[in-house]
Amino acid sequence: MSRVCVITGASQGIGRAAAIRMAAEPDISHLILVARNGEGLEETKRMIGATKAKVESIAMDLSDLDAIPELVKGIHERHGSIDLLLNIAGYAEPKSLLDTTDENIRTTYAVNVFSMLAMIREAVRYMRGRPGKILNVASTAATTSRPGWIAYASSKAAVVSLSQTLADELAGTGIKVYVVSPGRCATELRQKLAPEEDPNTIMQPSQVAEVIASLLRGGENTLDGQNIIVRQQS
Ligand SMILES: NC(=O)c1ccc[n+]([C@@H]2O[C@H](COP(=O)([O-])OP(=O)(O)OC[C@H]3O[C@@H](n4cnc5c(N)ncnc54)[C@H](OP(=O)(O)O)[C@@H]3O)[C@@H](O)[C@H]2O)c1
């Protein structure tokens, strides 16, 4: 069976690594890459290189929730199904409580939580009756305290919570929901959170992508909903 895979946040970092890794899976017929930066998406496409999967990039701001139903409908109309949805897009602007502006709270939650829920709701309309898989990226910040990152950490806790609820709500429909929580991973977002850290000493995006690919394989049927921590072992 060939599968259509949608990946948000594919213009760089973990989303880009996931796109490159998923393109190597033999049953992926279409990869749809979504993020704001069109050039970043094209670079991801270039890095994927030769693949039998057809790759489409869509540059859009996912915090525009009103645009999400059309986005998902369009993908379904063009490619005939949506089998895998990887919600990887994320935003972080680390601030302590008194420095956290309304704008920071709104943007963090709009990208990390609201757009994810809207993407899932719209994709599920088309997945029903098929063995679909949804994978949401949270963070270890969801379950351990991060003083100074209040908006980001709390938004990631919401991702864990919504994923667990949806795994149960969608049980029996054939749709599985996974939530993956990476620890420190060498990307631009991590550099913002820990500017002093040497990115060569921490987990690389390709390591997270490897775990993501293994969860999304057709045969994986032992995990669902539980928060899966992905962390480099020292
Ligand atoms: N790196 C870590 O240590 C770490 C640890 C735990 C969890 N995570 C999570 O992993 C995921 C990927 O993060 P990353 O580390 O790879 O960070 P990154 O390199 O900053 O990538 C973030 C991605 O999200 C996209 N994005 C942000 N705002 C968007 C918007 N409004 N509309 C559409 N796309 C948007 C960005 O694309 P554009 O800028 O092109 O829109 C980019 O592709 C995030 O959910 C993050 O919270 C990361």
What does this structure look like?
The longest helix has 26 residues, at 102-127. Helix 1 (13-23) crosses helix 7. With 234 residues, this protein is α/β, with parallel strands linked by helices. Helix 2 (38-48) links the parallel strand 2 (28-35) and strand 3. It has a 7-stranded parallel sheet with strand order 3-2-1-4-5-6-7, with helices on both faces. It is built from 7 helices and 7 strands; from the N terminus they run E-H-E-H-E-H-E-H-E-H-E-H-H-E. It has helices at 13-23, 38-48, 68-79, 102-127, 150-169, 188-193, 205-216, and strands at residues 3-8, 28-35, 54-59, 84-87, 133-137, 176-182, 227-230. The chain has one domain (3-230): Rossmann fold, CATH 3.40.50. The chain binds NADP nicotinamide-adenine-dinucleotide phosphate. NADP nicotinamide-adenine-dinucleotide phosphate is lined by residues 9, 11-15, 35-37, 40, 61-63, 88-91, 111, 137, 139, 182, 184-185, 187-190.
Alpha carbon gyration radius? 17 Å
Instruction: Output the number of helix runs.
Output: 7
Bound molecules: NADP nicotinamide-adenine-dinucleotide phosphate
Largest sheet: 7 strands, parallel
Mean pLDDT: 96
Q: Which structural category do the helix and sheet elements fall into? A: alpha/beta
Per the principal axes of the C-alpha atoms, what is the gross shape? globular
Low-pLDDT regions: none
What's the CATH topology label?
Rossmann fold
Give the helix level as a range of percent: 40-55%
Strand % is 15-25%
What's the β-strand tally?
Answer: 7
Named at the architecture level, the CATH assignment is 3-Layer(aba) Sandwich
Terminal CA distance: 38 Å
Elements, N to C (H/E): EHEHEHEHEHEHHE
